[in-house]
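User: Can you write out an input/output pair for a complex, sequences first and structure second?

Assistant: Here is one pair. Inputs:
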Amino acid sequence: MVQVAQHPALKYFRHDSPGVPHLWCEGCGIGLLWHYTVRAIEELSLDPNKVVWVGGSGCTGRMCTYWNYDYMHTLHGRPLGFATGVKLARPELTVIAHMGDGEASAIGGNHLIQTARRNVDLVAICNNNFNYGMTGGQFSPTTPFGARTMTSPDGHLEHPFDLCELVKTCGAAYVARWTVVHQRQCINSIKKAIQKKGFAFVEIVTQCPTAYGRRNQLGQGADMMRWLRQSSVRREQAAQMSPGELAGRIVVGEFVDRELPEYGAALRELARRRGGEVDA
Amino acid sequence: MAKRLLSGVHFLQGDEACAEGAVAAGCRLFAGYPITPATEISERLSWRLPETGGMFVQGADELDSLTIVIGAAWGGWKTMTATSGNGICLMQENIGYACMTETPCVIVDCMRAGPATGIATAVGQGDFYQVRYGSNADYSIIALAPESPQEMFDLTVEAFNLAETYRVPTFVLADEIVGHMREKVVIPQRLELAERKRPSVPPEGFVPWQAEGSPPVPAMPSLGDGYRMPVPGLTHSETGGPHRDNYEGHKKLVERLYNKVEADADRLCRAEDGCLDGADLVLVSYGSAARAARAAARMAREAGLKVGFSRLVTLWPFPDAYVKGLARRASKLLVCEMSMGKLSREVERAAGGEAEVLLFSKPGVELHSPTEILEIARKVL
Amino acid sequence: METEMSDAGTRARARPRVKAIHIDERYCSGCGICIEFCPHHVLAASEAISANGVYPAVVIDLERCTVCRLCELYCGNFAIAVEEAGDDG
């Protein structure tokens, strides 16, 4: 069968991993995030051979395995560590790490805060779908209080991180949050993150209809995307709202955009001061 | 730019000599976390690497350190970390990942007394199995055991060469005494350095995980070289795609990862022995314990006792054939180690019943003294 | 919610016209997101079940399509492609 036109994401897609075309569930938001990342790369006219995707575990971890160029599929919670190593050795490459919410803030919490604090020139995209999807839908550090998951059948007892606040405090150069419904904003923020010389963190809230959605009666993919759209409120508006009004809302926007000394550049400068030349 | 190879005669601490070995071998990035008795390696590299065009990173912990080491290796660099036994514990998942992705890197373990926090400033040899079998499932690594600052230099260089050749994490399994003692170190005028095999075909013809040659390892491009390189932690086919419930594919990969080193045990065997002629008893040890054993063997010979010694330098892959050879020559092997009995288990296995294997165990803090060993030798002969 | 349009799909002055919308039934999982979010109700769920065992999206009124490409951006399975008239591919 001759395909007259194919979906624009497929130009960059590696058909060597399980699933048709991939292993994500119907209605899942990760495919959208995959495409947004690829759109950002394309709109910046980057050579895909110079873009490395780094993933960890879980559904989000699999994103890199479909990227038809260089990728490292690493260990749960650790993409930022490996990504740091790659970027230090090859500063000319764009290194993008996709992490799930649990990956970034539970097991990967220390890597997240340290890499942000060092301000390593990386793009860190956190796919926040409020649970550990691949393993069946257990709670994570971003699961809302009271939510039902496979390990909180009576309602979640813990309170979630505000990942953007966390990363901002650690000293990142760029921090933004959108939901996957905000297509243009997601793509623009990913572009800014790529161009930013420093640690750029973009949290994108997506739907996980199979696990989180089902346990909390949020419906299918389309229903959950409607819910994401209705729950979102822009940062500027949120600033005028009371905590009560903000309950259950998702605050979106850009939170930080600043210039800070970058880690790899500092190490290269140190070498120069000592008489060595790293890129000789 | 400062010289990478400081040819000449030096008086160096073992840790310092190890750092020099790394720089001499072409190490471009070191990431490590302070831990006694390996901290001095980090400290020296924090200025030796920048002045030779490299990078020093102090990781947030040992685990963070090894992830950075592995990432930078995929950027094309020779990389190293150094720690003690407790740090190796934290690194285990990453060690397995380095094995699965066939990432060349050097890991120095300056062993100390344990378990757990133990005694930071005291010697031990309890990580013998940890470096080989500490991660999940099956894989292989190479481990070399220095007994002096000179060997800290030489074997660190050798570790880099082996890591590049076998595409495997290679351990320098030192101990607190070797790491902290100071001795003469001669750094030569020239070194033979090995480099990882790079692809000989353009990207279109490259099959990323197809092994070739001896040892059977794939060619290793760097990320960013245009080879669309898949680096997977999952069991993978030759094209890099994940296998699912595929026994044959999984078996093929695991067997290759395991055997690429194990099958070369004879070729990789390095050992020093002496006083073996007509020996009834051979003292078997490694690292600082071997210094005592060597002295004990000489004292024994002077006293008319037929005692020989063998110092293993390559610990993994375990030199089965060599140890069996010792077992055939002598009726007894006395293993002197600073652990409850790890080397002794391997020696017993490899001896295959051809000699009686005895253990003189001191589980850390105090080194065997030659006199103690001699006394035991007298008793067992 | 604001939706800023990408420059990538527009041409200078002329309003874009659609040539065809291709839906790959091997990939379509029947999630219905494109149907729900299409601003002009171009798509609907097929009445026939596909080989994948789902009701994929089908085009019901091509004329209404403005080539906004929301469906492409919202398709998590990369199953839908909008072909613009005058596209060279």
